[in-house]
Design goal:
620 residues; Immunoglobulin-like; seven-stranded antiparallel β-sheet; six-stranded mixed β-sheet; 43% strand
């Protein structure tokens, strides 16, 4: 039995600005003898947080049980399997910092630092053959900003809103400056996202330098005196604070973390809607898919997983902040609840198919009459060059065509909201299952095959002004969606009547009868016992019916022990028709028995037809 401690570690920069502690290392130590475990475990983490001197860090190295590097989402997993003497007792958790996240560069770093977070008695829960516990923590901003300051990493987090309505303003550039005694220092800039938030990272050296540096390196106060400018991406000023604003008490001598609230009296002109990815096919992921964490990733109501090629769509304007726009999609794997298990990865050209993203409209004067000519525009990985029918794809970015004159030879491009047709089996490949040897009436796992499981991913759209990485921003994230593309090979079809093994099936689906199994094509004269097998992780209704004189005839289905793996014997004589039927009452003739398995799958626009299998027999 192994022990695993999972969780997230983040640091607060402002009340609404939290950063994952990406790249830092969390370490678990056995407690030194003589420490008051109960008191330490009960203490608040902010009261136990303290620096670890280098000598103490070296001294406790022999008590190290496990360590893990924190990922881009703040997640970590401490694996105690290499500490065989560990039996679940209280541990001491430390944070090792060689740098801090998003430091502007790694030059001039101080010596690595280590801090004790807390003493924790994990609440272990059994999970299969292991024991798992969770611990999430966000370091308070006073502590975390102090640590960032020791690494010379300073940050401004803020939001731009409309002064009167308080509505957030996205897609504008914020520039930060420090009032200096000879010349003002430009600290950095960022483009606001759709919630109006921005973040500017800079170094202490950025505001301590003068025109005489390094001979004279003087800053009158301990921190920068901040003032801001806001402009459109095209450079049109929207807000220009005077340098004297930096000498006001709320701006003077800012600390390592500064929270800025800026407001514009007038919103920048909007000539086009904001770009947003908000749907998979016909499903809005915010309201029609259980995409929040935790959630199933299935569609709301009908509980379908996505399969095959899925259309990603929403609102696709031509420009971003007045500049020509380009976009791409990224995905990452998640667990069954939507928690990230991998990094964001760009959807590669091999992972999406030709997508019609809009059409060109062109007005032409023919024989005294104005006519509108149209043709489609494609985003096609097989044709990445820009022409009249194709959008350019450069470095994975799809450039939205800018044609905007219907009287011009190039016409007017009208987006249709479709951005990408993503091939989901290419994102998360799933191995085929071999049903060889499985006959109707048996579990699909009877001969060694496993049950298929849904895969889970997140999807997001990134947009930017063409060729300008500094303008890149999120344009919609579906945090969790269930994907199922397993194919079933060597599925036995036709029972003992016309047996054949078929591959590349969407599910396991087989039907037979005991009597045909014993007699092949012999006529039946005494009984009919129908056997069936149907398996799929998103199995919907499963039913058996029979056509023939006086039919159709219905069968009852046994209550399954596992909704994803249904098998056994159907029950004769259940309505319809009312009153049921018995084999003896059937007229002598030919009959066809059909097993139908409905699958809860969707491309977002369509669902697969039921998978079927049939047998025929003659009653004599």
């Amino acid at each position: 039995m192994s022990y695993y401690l999972k969780g997230t570690l983040k640091g607060a920069l402002c009340s609404d600005c939290i950063e994952p502690l990406e790249g830092l290392v969390i370490k678990a130590y056995a407690l030194a003898q003589g420490r008051d475990v109960a008191a330490l475990a009960a203490a608040r983490t902010k009261d136990t947080f303290e620096g670890v001197p280098d000598t103490d860090r070296d001294a406790k190295a022999g008590r190290l049980l496990a360590e893990a590097t924190i990922d881009a989402t703040g997640a970590y997993v401490l694996d105690f399997s290499k500490a065989p003497n560990y039996k679940g007792e209280a541990i001491e958790l430390d944070l090792y910092c060689a740098t801090v996240p998003r430091r502007k560069n790694q030059e001039g770093l101080p010596r690595p630092m280590q801090f004790t977070l807390t003493v924790l008695q994990p609440m272990w829960r059994e999970f299969r053959d292991d024991r798992v516990a969770a611990w999430d923590y966000t370091i308070p901003y006073r502590i975390w900003c102090g640590i960032r300051g020791r690494f010379g990493a300073w940050v401004i987090c803020g939001q731009v809103r409309h002064c009167e309505t308080q509505a957030p303003i996205g897609g504008v550039r914020v520039r930060a400056f420090d009032v200096d005694w000879l010349q003002d220092d430009a600290l950095g800039d960022d483009v606001t996202d759709f919630s109006g938030h921005f973040r500017i990272d800079y170094l202490a050296s950025d505001f301590k330098q003068t025109i005489f540096s390094p001979t004279i390196n003087l800053e009158w106060t301990g921190g920068p005196d901040l003032y801001f400018k806001v402009e459109t991406l095209g450079g049109v000023p929207l807000l220009a604070e005077p340098p004297s604003r930096g000498r006001a008490p709320d701006r003077e001598n800012a600390g390592p973390c500064f929270c800025a609230d800026l407001c514009l009296k007038e919103s920048p002109p909007v000539t086009e809607p904001l770009p947003v990815f908000d749907a998979l096919g016909g499903y809005l992921y915010a309201s029609q898919i259980e995409s929040a964490v935790p959630g199933s990733g299935l569609t709301v109501g009908d509980h379908r997983a996505f399969y095959s090629t899925v259309r990603l769509n929403g609102v696709l304007p031509k420009t971003l902040g007045g500049q020509p726009m380009e976009y791409r999609f990224e995905f990452r794997t998640t667990d069954a609840l939507g928690n990230p298990t991998g990094p964001w990865t760009v959807v590669a050209p091999t992972q999406f198919s030709d997508t019609i993203i809009g059409r060109i409209e062109r007005l032409v004067f023919v024989l005294g009459t104005w006519m509108t000519l149209t043709h489609y525009v494609h985003a096609d990985p097989a044709s990445p060059g820009a022409d009249a029918a194709h959008a350019a794809i450069v470095g994975g970015w799809i450039q939205v065509p800018q044609f905007s004159n219907a009287l011009d030879v190039n016409g007017f491009f009208v987006p249709n909201g479709d951005m990408l047709r993503v091939i989901t089996p290419m994102l998360v490949p799933q191995p085929a299952l071999n049903m060889a040897g499985v006959i109707a009436g048996e579990s699909s796992t009877a001969h060694g095959a496993a049950l298929a499981q849904n895969r889970h991913i997140a999807l997001r759209m990134r947009v930017r002004a063409v060729g300008l990485p500094g303008t890149e921003q999120d344009a919609g994230t579906c945090a969790h969606v269930a994907i199922e593309n397993t194919v079933y090979n060597n599925v036995h079809k036709g029972g003992s009547w016309a047996p054949v093994d078929v591959s590349s099936q969407l599910c396991a689906c087989s039907v037979d009868s005991l009597q045909l199994r014993a007699g092949g094509c012999a006529g039946l004269n005494a009984a009919l016992d129908v056997l069936f097998t149907a398996a799929h992780p998103n199995l919907g209704s499963v039913g058996v019916s029979m056509n023939g004189p006086g039919g159709p005839y219905g069968f009852g289905m046994p209550v399954p022990l596992n909704a994803a793996d249904q098998f056994g014997q159907a029950i004769n004589g259940v309505a319809p028709p009312a009153g049921g039927w018995t084999f003896n009452t059937l007229p002598d003739c030919a009959y066809i028995v059909t097993l139908s398995a409905h699958l809860l799958l969707t491309t977002g626009d369509s669902s697969p037809l039921p998978v079927q299998d049939q047998i025929a027999f003659c009653k004599k």
